Amino acid sequence: MTGTTNAFDVSRFQDPKTIQRVLLAARTIAIVGLSGNPLRASYFVGYYLKRHGYRIVPVNPRETEVLGEKSHGSLLDVPVPVDIVNVFRAPSAVPGIAREAVEIGAKTLWCQFGVISEEGARVAEEGGLTVVMDRCIKVEHARYIGRMGWLGFNTERITSVRGGLQ
To answer: How many Å separate Cα 25 from the centre of its chain?
Structure first.
């Protein structure tokens, strides 16, 4: 993968408490690479997040509208404050996306499974963003906030607190 090194330790961007804090605090999620094709993972993730109360902002120059929301050509075109920038793009695109995320004042850069970029993480961190990498935002939401455990999945957490751990 372009933009990664073998020595890069992505595990420091997968802290469960950080993930929970980010998901609980966020209201608006810009999804870079959100497709209008219902068979694509990005569409399903956007659909899931919208159903769970998040405002979704599509960022894809190839789309005009996704999930009933106007699609923007870049993060710089997004007219509302963004809490999470969720990335469904090749790792080589992440440094540029991270720069835009810093420029618009986003709070978190979240890179999906397989989207690993050491340079992108560095740019985002230096710009003051929280970074989550190589994690699916839908899976993590279901694990910590949704009801995944009720279905019998091992969520690696035990709690009697309805709102989850914080």
So the answer is: 13
What pTM value is reported for the model? 0.86
Give, in degrees to the nearest 5, the angle at Cα 99 between 141 and 40.
Answer: 45
Q: Which helix H or strand E contains 43, and what residues bound it? A: helix 41-51
Give the domain extent around 115. 12-151
User: How crowded is residue 135: how many other Cβ atoms within 10 Å of its Cβ?
Assistant: 19
User: Is 70 exceeded by the pLDDT of residue 157?
Assistant: no
Residue 24 CA to residue 92 CA, distance in Å, equals 29
Structure tokens at 154: 């091992």
| Number of domains within the chain | 1
First-to-last C-alpha distance (Å) of the chain: 34
Smallest CA-to-CA distance from 30 within 166, 137, 139, 145 is with: 137
**Domain containing residue 39: CATH number:** 3.40.50.720
> Residues 36-68: pLDDT tens digits?
999 999 999 999 999 999 999 999 999 999 999
